[in-house]
Design goal:
alpha/beta; Rossmann fold; 2 domains; four-stranded parallel sheet; 14 helices; 14 strands; elongated
Length: about 400
């Protein structure tokens, strides 16, 4: 009589145990799927490796700050944002593959990130194919907005560089012997052409327009030409390594222009540390810096800097802010869609982006009919005693330009 309960227990206890495991597994799966359903997926593609990795990582970190900030504030419509990041390896073919993955398989609701138009362009084409809105973090070429793509938006454009450059040359420097140098890259070439057109319209003669290869190992022949023509102002559309070599060789050859302006790659802490005292008096342009922000956004700018430092243990720069701005634009558009009681579809988010009016530390962000930012505009800065000083336009200036630049002999 006593053996029957034992047999009964031997039969039921293992069965109950197996049923408990199955129930736990199914419950976990259900909760996991529910958790996924309760998140909003934003895709991000950046060059996190390869030759553009430094800039891609800076953009990625700015995007991460925007996502963390939104989630800490409750997400969008009570749902948390999930950032799905992919590395395009600084290669257009990989950028296409990553965009296909995020749009076609991961089913993200929007895309952001992107550095240089050779990578941004292919991503934009895939976004259009899937009707997914894409807000690019760093894009300049006009060509990308000349082809109809209602799903493509960007927070930067080339005109934001050329307008202040043209302005300070016309109003303050009035060069007699101006040289425009440019790297053989699409963005730099386009900058040189636009600046030339603007200056000619205002009667400024350009004595020399010269193209050079990125990574040129020796600028001595070009410097000889500049000295022979007695060039007084140089605008160079190169990048940080080009400026480092060219300025050092100008010093070695004792060629002292009244102003050296490099719109790309100079207004960065890394550049100033590398150049040391030789960075002083150089000019550049800047969309944002921890000490340079859109008037009225000082508190927002300080918060971004604080959050960035907490997350990454270093200082943000203008590239980081471009990533932050593009992600904030998407988040604001999504919030507008939810507030209107609509579904978060690609078309609804796209429409909300066309109506966006957002004041950010980098710019007052409003998109035109092509997805270009209407108010993206740099300031001109000069490095003075190791600090960036805004010298143009006058209503944003924090100091006066030192012009003409002291000669190398006067500095030593």
């Amino acid at each position: 009589m006593k053996s029957k309960p034992k047999t009964h227990q031997k039969f039921w206890f293992p069965l109950l145990k197996r049923l408990s495991i199955i129930f736990y597994f199914l419950s976990s799966l259900f909760l996991s799927n529910l958790s996924i359903a309760e998140t909003i997926k934003i895709g991000e593609i950046n060059p996190l490796s390869g030759k553009l990795a430094k800039q891609g990582i800076e953009i990625h970190q700015g995007v991460e700050v925007a996502i963390a900030e939104a989630n800490e504030a409750g997400g969008v419509g009570g749902k948390q944002l999930k950032l799905i990041s992919r590395d395009d390896q600084s290669r257009p073919d990989v950028a296409i593959s990553r965009a296909e993955e995020l749009c076609g398989w991961k089913k993200v609701q929007a895309l952001t990130g992107g550095y240089v138009d050779s990578l941004v362009g292919p991503i934009a084409a895939v976004a259009k194919k899937y009707r997914i809105p894409y807000v690019a973090s760093a894009s300049l070429q006009k060509e990308l907005v000349e082809h109809e793509n209602p799903y493509f938006f960007r927070v930067s454009r080339l005109q934001g560089f050329t307008e202040p450059l043209c302005g300070i040359l016309i109003e303050r420097f009035k060069p007699q012997r101006l040289a425009i140098l440019h790297s053989a890259t699409p963005g730099s070439t386009e900058l040189a052409r636009d600046l030339e057109n603007c200056l000619k319209t205002h009667g400024i003669k350009i004595r020399l327009i010269e193209k050079f290869r990125p990574g040129t190992p020796d600028f001595t022949p070009l410097i000889g030409k500049l000295a022979g023509m007695k060039i007084d102002v140089i605008v160079s559309g190169g990048f940080s390594p080009d400026h480092i070599l060219l300025v050092r060789q100008l010093k070695e050859n004792r060629v002292s222009p009244k102003a050296y302006i490099g719109p790309f790659g100079i207004a960065y802490e890394n550049f100033m540390r590398t150049m040391g005292e030789d960075a002083n008096y150089l000019y550049s342009t800047c969309a944002w810096n921890p000490g340079i922000t859109e008037p009225g956004t000082e508190a927002t700018s300080r918060y971004f800097v604080k959050k960035f430092r907490q997350m990454f243990k270093r200082e943000p720069n203008t590239t980081s802010m471009h990533g932050y701005t593009s992600a904030k634009a998407l988040i604001a558009a999504m919030q507008a869609v939810v507030s209107d009681g609509q579904a978060l579809t690609g078309d609804n988010i796209r429409l909300a982006l066309t109506r966006l009016d957002l004041t950010m530390p980098m710019e007052h962000l409003v998109f035109d009919q092509n997805g270009d930012p209407l108010h993206y505009r740099h300031v001109v800065v000069q490095i003075q005693k190791g600090k960036l000083v805004v010298v143009y336009p006058p209503d944003r200036a924090s100091g006066q330009p030192v012009f003409p630049t002291p000669s190398w002999e006067q500095r030593n």
